[in-house]
Amino acid sequence: xxxxxxxxxxxxxxxxxxxxxxxxxxxxxxxxxxxxxxxxxxxxxxxxxxxxxxxxxxxxxxxxxxxxxxxxxxxxxxxxxxxxxxxxxxxxxxxxxxxxxxxxxxxxxxxxxxxxxxxxxxxxxxxxxxxxxxxxxxxxxxxxxxxxxxxxxxxxxxxxxxxxxxxxxxxxxxxxxxx
Length: 179
What we know:
Blueprint: H1 2-14, H2 17-44, H3 60-66, E1 72-73, E2 76-79, E3 87-90, E4 95-101, E5 111-114, E6 117-121, E7 130-135, E8 141-147, H4 153-164
Antiparallel strand pairs: 1-2, 2-3, 3-4, 4-8, 5-6, 6-7, 7-8
């Protein structure tokens, strides 16, 4: 066995420089191909991977608000999700917006009005320490999931309210008339 290994090693050493250059070139080409494959897989991954698109994500109202997604929200930069209509992601999914949902029906879940937009906290949908809120009385509805560890909910709601305000409101969960 030892003699066989020595013969192979000696054979490799005796190869001409041209053969060694061809082997080195083949190894370099294989490494370049592997690196290209890894980069392509990384480049084709979307920040929206794993996020379900809303049923009405292609609604014109969703397309209109998509043009105004803020570059930064809650201290997180927006990542490109243009290939997935109706979805916006800031940070490493610290804030996820989905436009195109059916508006919630009357609910006993907590509701808050922020700058003229009613938001419902979906207590049953909260998971993993994340807050799930959805616009109330606007069609299509906009749902936002926030990591409360990384994002100030109040500040994000102020920015998001300005974003969704152009979607016409037809109902309120909070009586703004004071009666």
